[in-house]
Amino acid sequence: MRLAAVDPHALKLGLVPGTTLADARASVPDLAVFDHDPGADQRLLEWLADGCERYSPMVAVDLPDGLLIDMTGCDHLFGGEAGLIQDMERRLIRIGMTVRIASGYAPEAAHALARFHSRPATDEAMAVRRLSVTALELDAEAEVGLRRAGLKTIADLAARPSSALSARFGKPMADRLARMLGQSDSRITPRRPLPALVVERRFAEPIGRVETALKVLAELTGEVATLLDERGKGGRRFLARFFRSDGAVRDIAVETGLPSRDPKVLERLFRERMDALADPIDPGFGFDLIQLGVDRLEPLPAGQLKLEGGAAAETAVAGLIDRLSIRLGRNRVRRFAPKDTHIPEQAVLALPAIEAATPARWESPETGEPPLRPIHLFDPPQRIRVAGAEVPDGPPRRFQWRQSQHEIARFEGPERIAPEWWTLPPGRRGLTRDYFRVEDVRGRRFWIFRHGLYEREREHPDWYLHGLFA
Amino acid sequence: MNESAPNLEALKRRIASLEGHASVRADRLFTLGDEAADARIGGGMAHGRLHEIFASEPVDGGSAAGFALMLAIRAASALPILWLREEAGERAGGLHAPGFAEIGLDPGRLILAIARDCVTLLKAAGDSLRCAGLGCVVIEPWRGTRLIDLTTSRRLALAAEQSDVTALILRTGAEPGPSAAQTRWGVRAAISTALPADAPGNPALDISLLRHRGGPDGLAWRMEWNRDQCSFSATPLSGAVLPLPAGGSAAADRRIA
């Protein structure tokens, strides 16, 4: 067992990451040891990344112990790069983190400068070149090889043609070098996609009350509405982000079925969402930044405020679906589309109603026929005990379901539904179902099936009740 | 008899206004499709009101749900239908969209919303009834619950009235209690008219009008549903016939709910 990380005091006593536990305990008998928990470390990094999203939407986690933040175009809000870095450092130290911040023109360069010492230099490019080759984070063998070849700093490597380097040390190393030197393009992948539109308010004095924060959100909603109006667009996904001064971030998202930019509607949806929250928004020591982002923009022409007749009704229903989806859950408010399959329990596709703007097209059943499918379907089908089944193809004369006997007076069938052999794994043979529409002596109508053909597939097939008719 | 009839009308109107309950306009009725039955219940059922449907035994649940669907089809014309259920109910037996098509409703018009419990269901019902774009809202709580009391049903009835959306409360395996419903129906499955080869025919239901606000109750029919025309037709009941008072008699009018 080796040490994964040590605190400054331990460092002073000569312990470094990589020392075996036995050696460490030998030299420092009263060493306090804790299990390394990479999961917890990652969660902490994600939490810190949330907080850093106040500086830029382009934040990535740089495992195992860092973050990458692309501040291109964002630093003007903090008075330049230096101001942004200072603010970030101050915040992180305040919440108890020990941090080394470095900036660079490429992610790899910044990564290396933050982790490895460089000799004093006039600018970033030179600082990168003065890094030792250790900064490439190659394995020990490759690094020894580099040093034996007399290549001790990044500058040495930069002088060599890259074809020679990739021939000798492999393409990945040469690529990494090129990215570090800014010779090839390198981007970070942000944790969340960038919203199409963002408005925000920063507060020198953090807001301590949720009601005030919600008033700010209402203002932001109005601002977003104006911006969307100018573009003739509406949004379908709205994300409100509440950034606390201690680094925590709370996200509240709402979505709509039809594009919207109506501030009143959006306020109502946000309120609906906040009422449905399991744990309410906690300002902690206060919110110092509140953002509203809009996504999934779709065209929404101006002047669709006074609708008449059918259009007004449709909008009203769409609005109700939005509210119910937020309150009940978007998968709990459903519309139905047909699926092309004979298997009854798979014949319907249930879609979130907020996604299904236009109703699906269903074929009308044949005229002159009674209902051939039940209105209730059991999932899974319910086992029934039968008596008097006419082998091999007939229905039973009576069956028992949930402690009550049903004497069958009328029936129609069998409707044979074979398994979809193309969906089964090779070698597996499914069982054919023979469905019967039956009516008992009291007039109740059931949909039962025999699971498996008698003798051909099963010696003693089971019977099931799959659904109830009206 | 003749001179008491106008007084009776005036008295009914006065009582209705005291109850704070607007009388139903003749054009805001939807018919069942069977002329005789519609005439018996005063022309049809009221739009924008609360109607209750009960099935006393869980095994009649399919028939009760079918009846609710059939009434919703009659009430909703071409507008969407919202069906509210509880999670427990949906788990016990899910609504099957192709079955709805077989009863005569284009499943594209159906919106199903599932609430985790009865409280959420009733709140969602209240909000849904205020949405004027819906043709009908079917509210299906799970089993017996004490939450649906007179106050709750009054609230729902009021919401339905204000936006003119018809509300149907469907309860299987529950006992009726005091409510502000316009009508209350009991439903049981009935033997259908057989098709050739002794196959089960169109859905047949024994429906009884248990309560009717401002109209006659204690009526019963055996109805058959024709899904191609989306209408009911009464088939003659075999055996004993309920003594039905002739239309417009004072005896029936005295039975104001």
Query: What is the number of strand segments of chain B?
Result: 12
Alpha-beta classification of chain A: alpha+beta
Amino-to-carboxy terminus distance of chain B:
22 Å
Biggest protein-protein contact in the assembly: A-B, 60 and 63 residues
Our estimate of the beta-strand percent of chain A is 15-25%
Q: Note the run of SSEs of chain A as H and E.
A: HHHEEHHHHHHHEHEEHEEHEEEEEEEE
Q: Which spans of chain A of ≥5 residues are poorly predicted at pLDDT below 50?
A: none
Q: What is the CATH topology descriptor of chain B?
A: Rossmann fold
Q: What Rg of chain A do the Cα atoms give?
A: 33 Å
Any idea what the shape of chain B is? globular
- Number of folding domains of chain B? 1
* Fraction of residues in β-strands of chain B: 25-35%
- Could you give the order of the helices and strands of chain B? HEHEEHEHEHEHEHEEEEEH
Most strands sheet of chain B: 9 strands, mixed
> Please, how many helices of chain B?
8
CATH architecture descriptor name of chain B: 3-Layer(aba) Sandwich
Shape of chain A: extended
In short:
With about 475 residues, chain A is of the alpha+beta class. Chain A contains 13 helices and 15 strands.
Structure explained in plain terms:
The complex is a heterodimer of chains A (470) and B (257). Chain A has four domains: 8-36, no CATH class; 39-180, no CATH class; 197-323, DNA polymerase, Y-family, little finger domain (Dna Ligase, domain 1); 376-468, no CATH class. Helices cover 31% and strands 25% of the residues of chain A. Chain A has helices at 8-12, 21-27, 38-52, 81-94, 107-115, 124-129, 140-148, 154-159, 162-169, 171-180, 210-231, 263-275, 309-328; strands at residues 59-62, 66-69, 197-207, 233-244, 249-260, 287-295, 298-299, 333-338, 348-352, 376-387, 398-401, 404-417, 433-440, 445-451, 462-468. In chain A, the strands form four sheets. Chain A has a six-stranded antiparallel barrel. In chain A, α9 (162-169) packs across α10 (171-180) and α12 (263-275) packs parallel to α13. Chain A is extended, with a radius of gyration of 33 Å. Chain B has a single domain (23-237), classed as P-loop containing nucleotide triphosphate hydrolases (Rossmann fold, 3-Layer(aba) Sandwich). Chain B has helices at residues 4-18, 35-40, 61-76, 87-92, 97-103, 118-129, 150-163, 250-253, and strands spanning 29-30, 45-46, 50-55, 81-86, 94-95, 110-115, 136-140, 166-172, 183-189, 204-212, 219-226, 231-235. In chain B, the strands form two sheets. Chain B has a nine-stranded mixed sheet, with helices on both faces. In chain B, strands 1-2 form a two-stranded antiparallel sheet. Chain B is globular. The two termini of chain B are 22 Å apart. Residues 245-257 of chain B have low confidence and may be disordered. β8 of chain A pairs antiparallel with β6 (110-115) of chain B, so a sheet runs across the interface.
